[in-house]
Amino acid sequence: QVQLVESGGGLVQAGGSLRVSCAASGRTVGSYTMGWFRQAPGKEREFVAAISWTGGVTTYTDSVKGRFTISRDSAKNTVALQMNSLKPEDTAVYYCAADRYRSGSYHLAQGYEYWGQGTQVTVSS
User: Could you tell me what percentage of the chain is helix, strand and coil, using 3-state DSSP and rounding each to the nearest 5?
Assistant: First the structure.
């Protein structure tokens, strides 16, 4: 079992930055592909970014490319999402997800075995 806890969300003005983190416990996540998803009110959950279990592959949805960066710290068993140049449309609950040894289809929510409870990110205009 892996428990995921997100933190770092909050309220920021458009153009600002936030860093959300995901702390894993119960098992080391060195062998897990980690993903970030988000869900805005009235919308479906959507893929944001992922980093492969090897750390060698990162992928982003087009709307955040060049603004967001995903990283992992295996020693601390954490994954972070640095979000710069935030826009009001980035407002959502951000969820961390983990799937062991996933090697493709990172954008698909189905199959991620573990999920955190989410952290709210609100970007004001």
Answer: 5, 50, 45
